[in-house]
Amino acid sequence: MLVGDEASRSRVPSIQPATDDDFGREFLELKMSVAVVASLGEAIDHVNRFGTGHSEAIITTDLDSARRFTREVDAAAVLVNASTRFTDGEEFGFGAEIGISTQKLHARGPMGLRELTTYKYVVWGDGQVRT
């Protein structure tokens, strides 16, 4: 099922009307929201407003557009001409995926055991100083 904005519905009448909530959610079914924008800048703004912060993708043959999209979209993983389904701990070589995070610190994106590990540094000395 497709839901979309007015511009997409004027091009494809079978697309159902979308709400803002439709653009900012993961459906977990065969459903997709469609928006028509006038420029790459508008597309980036739309993704940054409604995206998940986890995985975003661009389909393009224009290398400059791909570079700009990857630079300006705020997400843990930005894919060019590839499915967002590749954003997975095992696909990234992290082993079994334990969870995901859209936070910028400490872990962002797919997480394996290493990303859930904290560190403790133990320094032994016998009176050394730093000058």
From TrEMBL:
Every Aldehyde dehydrogenase domain range: 32-93
GO molecular function, one term: glutamate-5-semialdehyde dehydrogenase activity
The protein's name in its UniProt record: Unannotated protein
Organism (species): freshwater metagenome
